[in-house]
Amino acid sequence: MTFPATAPSPAPVTATVTIRGLTKRYGRAVVLDGLSLEFGRGVTGLLGPNGAGKTTLLRCLATTLAPDGGEVRALGLDPSDPGGRTDLRRRLGYLPQSPGFYPHFTVFELVEYVAILKELTDRRKRHREVRRVLRETDLTDLAATKVRKLSGGMRQRLALSQSLLGDPDLLILDEPTVGLDPEQRMRFRALVSRLGESRTVLLSTHQTEDVAALCERVIVMRDGAAAFQGTPGGLAATAAGQVWLSDHPPAEKGLFWRTADGRYRTLGARPPSGVPADPGVEDGYLLLLGEGAGGQSDEPPGGSAGESGSRSAGASDGGEGA
Amino acid sequence: MTWHLPGDLVERYAHGRLDSAQVMSVESHLARCPLCRAAVPYEDGWLAASWERIEDLVDRPRPRPVARVLRRVGVPEHVATFLAATPAPARGWLVAVTGVLAFAVAAAHFAARRTPDTANALIPFLAVAPLLPVAGIAMAYGRHVDPVYELQAATPMAGWRALLLRALAVLSCAVALSGAATPLLPGPPGLAAAWLLPALALTAGALALSTRFAPPVSVAVLAIAWFGAVAAGPLLADDRLLAFSPGAQALYGVAAPALVFLIYARRARLDPGGPR
Fold it and tell me: Does one domain contain both A249 and A275?
């Protein structure tokens, strides 16, 4: 998906999540470095290379990790306060990057277990809610199947289903489309865009296609800080005048790849005989991360941001995913 | 269909005023007669609720055996379901506890045959039994021991509520198993039960330390300290049972509630999103 070079400026948002000066260290590695950002209702995409601090940010927001410093306000609640934290958890849905499961549980039992942890104590209401989220994620037919027998995509849908329990106001999804086939991804997009109509959804992903298709806003993280906040169109617009199509590969070093029609798409300086092309979210993202200066590829990035360049910077997230 | 349900019968059926034989007869007819089915009044809400009850009966999972036992002793349904969802390592722990206790009982009998001092023969059992619930706590809750931890950590039950519920379950199991093994031991019954107060104090100590360190680290520290205390008896007072003496028991009796109070005061620190 491409955007016109003169994209609209970010629409004003009523922030439901505000972060000021957030810091987190693992030993000597600074993973979040005074991060400040805000976003509101709708779907907000979170992009960034591995090690940029995305997962750590999401864990701080999901209250599974305490930051070392800074302020977080989500849905008007302060997660540094025990009462605010518990109240936030009551209104929160969270899909971690690598969710674990009890393999001997059935799909129904696993979701019911999380429903109990979400204080759905009445059995009948709880079962109704479990059936609802299983329907939402097309898992009804697998309700009695043991988790150990599920494929990767099915497990991902299971993880997504538990995050929908209790109809949360804030939904935090860490790479939710990993392992989904194209049809499932389309259904996921439909579901998330519907959820985003009335909720705040933060979607961390490497798929710039998902961001372009789903998100009203996008945040790009680099080295533990926000390198860009705005609309996908705004991110694409940052690449205006730096995206070229040519019949031959550029002589100078730069990021380029051969497209399906046999032409070369180059980011950065204009190659000989290059003609301007409409910039896309991915172009803006790659240029923002400085990939246009050195990396090169014979294959198109294929919408998988952060995978195409090899010079992604940033501190390690302590081995727990960034 | 040559006949139809009389109007008053339909009304009595709709208001639940028929006996079960009449209900069966009416429903047998309704199954085959669309005209009479259309004549039965119903409310959408009632129909939806009825379907939901049927759906719930048909596809709800059968409670796990542990949950059924807990329900029978009065544990609320959702708590029983939560506790029955014991991670696989805990099942391993249960098997290990049984094995360790069996071994300790056998060792006590073996030692009692070789020495006239049966009290000394009890030392291995007394030293190991208090650590069994503590070891269970190490496997009960935490980022590295529970595969579902990250999902749990973002729920309102995260932190002290989940940890204490599981710790209570672990303690109850360990105390029940150790209690069952106690009458099988040689030696005076009072001494054979001298593991109980240390078990309570060490369990409370493990939870109190977990407000600062990860549960496995807390348990490892306590286990080393406990074995050190047992081994120190002969060195300090030439008494191999010093750690189980009446004076020591009084100390455990005071320490356990004090540690419980400390856990309560620092419970926010058991929260994954709270301060450490």
Answer: yes
